[in-house]
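Q: Hi! First time asking for a complex rather than a single chain. Here are the components, and I think there are two in total. Is that enough to go on?
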Amino acid sequence: MSAGSHAPAGPLLEVEGLVKHFRMGGGLFARHSGRIQAVNGVSFTLAAGETLALVGESGCGKTTAARTIARLYRPDAGSVRFQGRDLAGLRGRALKSARRALQMVFQDPFGSLNPRLPVGAIINEPLKIHGIGTRAERGERLARVMTQVGLNPRDAERYPHQFSGGQRQRIAIARALVLEPELIIADEPLSALDVSIQSQILNLLKDIQEDRGLAFLFITHDLAVVDHFADRVAVMYLGHIVETARREALFETPRHPYTRALIDAVPVPGGGKRRLGTATAGDVPSPAAPPPGCPFHPRCPRASETCRRTMPALEPRAEDPGHRVACHHPLEAPTGAGGAP
Amino acid sequence: MSAAGSLSDHGGGPVLTVDGLEVTFPTADGPLRAVAGISYSIAPARTLGVVGESGCGKSVTALAILGLVPPPGRIAGGTVWLGDLEVTAMDEAALTAIRGERVSMVFQEPMTALNPVLTVGEQIAEAWALHREGSPAEARQAALEMIARVRIPDPVRCFDDYPHHLSGGMRQRAMIAMALACGPELLIADEPTTALDVTIQAQIIELMMEMQAEFGMAIQFISHNLGVVSEIADDVMVMYAGHIVEIGSSAQIFADPRHPYTRALMETLPRIGARVHRLPAIPGTVPDLGALPAGCPFSDRCPLADATCRAQRPALEDQGGGHFAACFKAGEPAP
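A: Yes, that's all I need. Here is the structure of the assembled complex.
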């Protein structure tokens, strides 16, 4: 494991009551104005070396949560304790140094790499920014990290456009690794890649994690990737975590009707034609105008009057305290006596 | 199904016949063959899923069927037939007359295909009026009916909405309403659910299946997602570097894939409940059309490739029951 010199007593990352809203311009043609409630009180912890997947559909707040945790956005409320220090209140140099062990990898390996710099300079830029090592030491680190991500160190003088999408994502991963972080926040790192390249990058991330004992906060919409890669999963809907559990528990005994709907919506190759009438109805509501009560109630087959009025709290299950669900009428285990209203 | 394969029992010939289609793009190093001489057909009311990674030629094939290959690209060989009309022999006026009337297309991102300054209803009415005689009131009525048929709640309100007012799922429904307004016999859908969330994707797949049952059109459904294709397609065609590498019924392709590329694509996917430690990855990168191997286009990434594969290009061979694969080692287990 890699607790490092900081030796935090608690978890590596502890997010509590995180809130991030955006003000929406009420322009001439705008139907809505007001606030987009992107992240609405999100709490979770992440241990060193662990992978937590934040999963959900567009507008659920997973990307905003990730970016607020990395302090690319300033939180409106809540705390983000990383290695025991609250990033939420830090600014400038103190933030820069506190954030050193936390790196991000983005979805778009085209937009996130400076096209005017050779890849060696891109990968080593974080070392320069943090003033780490001599020129020679930086050169050694560059060669080591390029080799680790499956790039040839001799390509350090080439430019991003000379690489394929998969190789560019390797460059972005190398840049995240060069500071030897404790935590990598990866925001949909596979979405822009072809199927045959996705598995290469997924295997690479797994290798890196096993080698270095890194923790991952993995943001994705792809449940199959989650089941392959994550230790724990948090399912988000309209700014809230609606269910969180160990991977096995979440996939084998989902308790929230939304989690069930998400799993059932994933098309299975070779699973035969889709059965009509099984899709969950309705659209994801706008985070600018979330429904009252449980955010999922307009689409939920189990919704009752209570659900329309009161937001359920994220409560641990008696039989598995690590499995928490925010639902007034959670699904029961297949053998249990149903809990529907 | 493939040109040699079976037709459906709906009688008559196929809705679409593609015969030896070749599409090239000029480059400084000579023409790139984006589509390298492919042949297949689709029977009425059937859905052909077209699967492949970027650069495989699946989208260019679709554009060629509509006579929309972007210049300087061009159809360099082969023919495309809609029923007994030869599309590849048509001039622009004739093509305009059949687009929307006999064949329509829906795209991945409806925002780029819909006009942002016209209301949704106006655009559907316009698509109808292009090919139908009728008053503006009749066009409006036809548009309202189409909006209702694609199950958009509150059709009257939707008629007056602009595309940006709609959610991604509703926009795709509006796109489908526009495409089906004149009852075409072929609908080409290019990654129509790729930009959508999974729960919305499931709704759109169901909608397309319901629309096919109502309107009876054939569908060419293009996707990189094997799961989505499996949910909607009757037949599946796998493309790689401009070639058809395998084609057959959905059951044949998914239960008994014969081409090493098809197999590798299926094995490399993470699946819920599979719990493998490492995914079997396909080595190398998606092919560069300007630097393809001399023989089989997949030979430089194929675990089974030998000297023959590197020297000669395999043709589609019958694997039985209308299932074809272009591989010298078809069906051999991976080493």
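A: The first helix of chain A runs from residue 62 to 69. Let me know if you'd like any chain examined more closely.
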